[in-house]
């Protein structure tokens, strides 16, 4: 397992380099000009100097190489300096946002906690709800619980976040007045009252995200459980006199979790993409809103860095899913 993990990590480097090249070329070929936001009163020669200051006067391959060095080499040094108090990255040029003129990773680090509060909580809540629903729906196939779960899952999977988000705002914020419609990112949790305020403003965005995730995972869990409940080893375990709880929760559930692990692992980076819409609806000052603002301002360093971070998450959680396969099923070997 260790050898497999190391081999996959080594192979991930050229994979990520190729993804970085694709992202850079797509943004390079995309229409738009960073100078479009500059007022018309600025003389053309000043705009040209500003363009050169942003590095746009250099060839594309030079700019790509500089970005790769900054992301792969300088930014890890900045993190190392921050943790251990060293000065390896002092004076070195980092990835700079064209919009804010500040390091991109500093802005990302500031926004990540807000996204994790919402996305992380929604994902944990969704998994805790989806797995029991999927298990019981499969065990009680075609019962009223299964029919209700199927209906709710189809609704949750079909309704997009931009519609369900506005709907819950109208119901719970405008009509009932239970929860705030706008997420206050300046709120700091220092006591019980501030914790309750944080909980209140998290309920609606977490509800919207968790509904979609629960619908997907519960359907996969149900289908996987149904496939295993009819296997020969289940009939053998029951014939040996094992209790129904032991058969379902130990034998069937463990084998059923193998395909579900893929959905859960790969859903982590995917939900960050879904959070882009949700953060816009609820005004959560997180990664999603940062990406939308960077796209609107043609801030290419910010856009390509965030897109590359999403790619890293996908590669990383692919590896985590493969490792979990071997833990759940001892028959799987990586020799």
From TrEMBL:
Entry GO CC: plasma membrane
GO terms for biological process, alphabetical: transmembrane transport
Domain ABC transmembrane type-1 residues, every copy: 112-321
Lipid bilayer topology: Multi-pass membrane protein
Subcellular location: Cell membrane
Keywords: Cell membrane, Membrane, Transmembrane, Transmembrane helix, Transport
A Pfam entry, by short name: BPD_transp_1_N
Main localization, broad class: membrane
Regions annotated as coiled coil: none
Family: Belongs to the binding-protein-dependent transport system permease family.
PANTHER family, alphabetized: DIPEPTIDE TRANSPORT SYSTEM PERMEASE PROTEIN DPPB-RELATED (PTHR43163)
The protein, known as: Peptide/nickel transport system permease protein
Organism: Sedimentitalea nanhaiensis
């Amino acid at each position: 397992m260790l050898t497999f993990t190391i081999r996959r990590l080594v192979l991930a480097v050229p994979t990520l380099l190729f993804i970085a090249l694709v992202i850079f070329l797509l943004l390079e070929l995309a229409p738009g000009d960073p100078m479009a936001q500059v007022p018309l009163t600025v003389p053309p020669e000043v705009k040209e100097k500003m363009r050169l200051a942003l590095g746009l006067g250099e060839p594309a391959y030079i700019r790509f190489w500089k970005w790769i060095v900054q992301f792969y080499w300088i930014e890890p040094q900045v993190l190392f300096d921050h943790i251990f108090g060293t000065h390896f990255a002092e004076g070195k040029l980092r990835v700079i946002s064209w919009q804010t003129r500040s390091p991109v990773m500093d802005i990302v680090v500031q926004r990540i906690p807000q996204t994790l509060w919402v996305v992380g909580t929604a994902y944990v809540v969704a998994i805790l709800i989806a797995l029991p629903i999927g298990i019981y729906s499969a065990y009680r196939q075609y019962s009223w619980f299964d029919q209700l779960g199927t209906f709710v899952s189809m609704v949750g999977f079909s309704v997009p976040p931009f519609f369900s988000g506005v709907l819950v705002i109208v119901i719970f914020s405008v009509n009932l007045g239970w929860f705030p419609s706008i997420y206050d990112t300046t709120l700091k949790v220092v006591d019980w009252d501030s914790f309750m305020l944080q909980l209140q403003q998290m309920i609606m965005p977490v509800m919207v995200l968790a509904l979609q995730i629960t619908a997907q995972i519960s359907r996969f869990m149900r289908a996987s459980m149904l496939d295993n409940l009819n296997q020969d080893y289940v009939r053998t375990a029951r014939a040996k006199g094992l209790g129904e709880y032991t058969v379902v929760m130990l034998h069937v559930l463990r084998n059923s979790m193998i395909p579900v692990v893929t959905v859960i692992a790969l859903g982590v980076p995917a939900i960050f993409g879904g959070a882009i819409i949700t953060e816009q609806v609820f005004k959560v000052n997180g990664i999603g809103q940062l990406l939308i603002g960077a796209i609107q301002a043609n801030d290419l360093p910010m856009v390509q860095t965030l897109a590359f971070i999403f790619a890293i998450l996908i590669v990383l959680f692919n590896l985590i899913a493969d490792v979990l396969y071997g833990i759940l099923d001892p028959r799987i070997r990586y020799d």
